[in-house]
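Thread: Newbie trying to understand structure tokens

Hi all, I'm a second-year student working on a class project, and my supervisor (Dr. K.) asked me to get a predicted structure for one chain before our next meeting. I've only ever worked with sequences, so writing a 3D structure as a token string is new to me. If someone could post the tokens and maybe explain what I'm looking at, I'd be very grateful. Here's the chain:
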Amino acid sequence: MRKIGGLLFLVGVVCLLYSYHIQEKQKESINQLQSVLEAIRNMDNTGRSESIKEELSSSFNIDKADIKRLIILSIPSIELEAPVLPEPTQEYLNVALTQIRKNQVPGQGNFTIAGHNSVVYGRHFNRLDEIKIGDQIQLEGKQGKFVYQVESKKIIKPTDVDVLNETPGKREITLITCTKSGAKRIAVKGHIIANE
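---
Reply by user tm_fold:
Sure, no problem. This is what the structure looks like when written as tokens:
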């Protein structure tokens, strides 16, 4: 009985250490990506952009064409600022948020974004469940800055994909992540209120 208890304790310690290791690697990747994104935001047009894009491309194996289409999502109420990559690949989801449909344009139709509900507080869509009706969501990229206002937040089944459909004549945004258990999805929807 003592051996079983010791073995279970050892397995628990190994699991905790592995979790800690993964969390540290994710933090390292996030910090690296955030520094590159900050440099992209603050760069002048004197050729520095190519070296930054090269660093992002090599550090995270992100296609150079995708870097040019990078969008920054900000939700001040939950202190989130994160890159949104243009393709929903698992590799991209590990380091950033992604567009659900490829080649979307902010401010047109239903701009859909997916992100992991990370175990790390504040990472990706970990705090999406805290968002409130009336909060603002901002997208900033090559096309300009777009501000949306949250109009709904609901828990849906993974098969409820109609939230991703476009409503004719409406410019909106939809954010999707898993619930903490992973059994359902959190869907946040907003409509555009400003375009700068």
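A couple of things are worth pointing out once you decode it. The radius of gyration is 19 Å. The first strand starts at residue 71 and ends at 75. Feel free to ask follow-ups in this thread.
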